[in-house]
Specification:
single chain; alpha+beta; three-stranded antiparallel beta sheet; 5 helices; 9 strands; globular
Length: about 220
């Protein structure tokens, strides 16, 4: 009887756990759309509201706590992202937080310092006049504090690290949490689903950045 009760409790916990997982894609709710105005969203000729999707995603942080995050992405990659994050969740791959950049007034430096994971934001590439893949909802930044963007000044060649608080994480040989490498499950899954990794770029490194190249 005791063994039967133990088995039932285990089954019940697994069932509740499975039901509590959230991996949803929908049109952007009006309340979220209003929040995006003048922050991640600006009127433009390249992308429409109907091109975007609102995702709710279960994820686990480094301490093993489960959270439900939010993300806006292009509809072309919505199902791919749900598949990727579902696998990461199953593996207890740590993602500290996943909040819409609007929480940080679409200030990329602020959200990177907070180690935020996000996708859509209508903006240019940092240090450039060209639109970022984020402006089309086709790029995702993961655990951004520990996986910084490293580029070099065109004026004097000096190193620029974004966020500025992440300089100690530029050394990729060092051991620290949330680090993305080529042996990492996050890297492997994004590559599998048709993304490229900014950590493989030659002239600059964007260790947090995965952008969809199609497959």
């Amino acid at each position: 009887m005791k063994q039967l009760l133990t088995t039932f409790v285990f089954w019940l916990c697994c069932t509740i756990g499975a039901q509590s997982q959230i991996f949803n894609s929908s049109a952007i709710p009006d309340s979220v759309w209003q929040t995006m105005q003048g922050k991640t969203w600006h009127d433009n000729p390249y992308i429409k509201r109907s091109d975007l999707r609102y995702l709710r995603i279960s994820h686990v942080d480094l301490e093993g706590r489960t959270h439900v995050g939010e993300m806006i992405c292009n509809k072309l990659i919505a199902d791919k992202l749900l598949a990727i994050f579902r696998e990461l969740y199953k593996a207890h791959y740590p993602i500290q937080q996943m909040r819409l950049p609007d929480v940080y007034d679409a200030d990329d430096e602020r959200q990177m310092r907070a180690n935020n994971t996000s996708c859509f934001c209508y903006r240019n590439i940092s240090g450039s006049k060209n639109l970022s893949k984020h402006a089309r909802g086709l790029a995702v930044d993961i655990n951004t504090l520990y996986n910084p963007y490293v580029r070099y000044s065109k004026k004097d060649g000096s190193q620029i690290v974004e966020p500025a608080t992440a300089k100690k994480y530029v050394n990729r040989a060092a051991d620290f949490p949330y680090k993305i490498t080529r042996n990492d499950l996050c890297y492997k899954l994004f590559i599998k689903y048709g993304f490229s990794w900014g950590g493989a770029w030659k002239n600059k490194k964007d260790y947090q950045h995965f952008e969809f190249i199609g497959r």
